[in-house]
Amino acid sequence: MPDNQIKRPGHGISLIVAMFIGGIFIASIYLHPVQHYQRAQCREALRLLGNAIQIYGGEHQGQLPRQLTLLSNELSNPAFLVCPGSGHKPGSYADAEVWKDYQMIDWFLVFGTNAVPGNYPIAYDRFMKNHGGEGANVFTVDGVVRWDLHAGGLKRFSIEHPDVHLILPE
Question: For the whole model, what pTM was predicted?
Answer without folding.
Answer: 0.77
